[in-house]
């Protein structure tokens, strides 16, 4: 299925509000869990060529240095 950015925005708005129902245009979808919503959000983002929030998280290294005394 080809997703649109409007559908993605509606899903992300519902997620931010804690709602399990998403409405866009003339359609209404009720998800069983937030996990289902997150999974479909990642699928939508991938199909739209957007990076997943999890894949853009930076990495860092903690160095402890001292004078060796």
Provide an overview of this structure.
A hairpin with a 2-residue loop joins β1 and β2 (27-30). The chain is elongated. It has a two-stranded antiparallel ribbon. The chain has helices at 5-17, 34-47; strands at 21-24, 27-30. It is of the alpha+beta class. Helix content is 39%, strand content 12%. The mean pLDDT is 85. The chain is built from two helices and two strands, in the order αββα.
Question: How would you summarize this macromolecular structure in one to three sentences?
Answer:
With 69 residues, this protein is of the alpha+beta class.
Count all strands and give the number. Answer: 2
Nearest-integer average pLDDT: 85
What are the low-pLDDT stretches, counting only 5+ consecutive residues below 50?
none
- Given the helix and strand composition, which structural class is it? alpha+beta
Largest sheet strand order: 1-2
Radius of gyration: 19 Å
End-to-end Cα distance, whole Å, is 64 Å
**Main sheet: strands, sense, barrel:** 2 strands, antiparallel
How many H/I helices?
2
Q: What is the overall shape? A: elongated
Residues in helix, %: 25-40%
Properties at a glance:
69 residues, alpha+beta, two-stranded antiparallel ribbon, 2 strands
Blueprint of the fold:
Blueprint: H1 5-17, E1 21-24, E2 27-30, H2 34-47
Antiparallel strand pairs: 1-2
Helix pairs in contact: 1-2
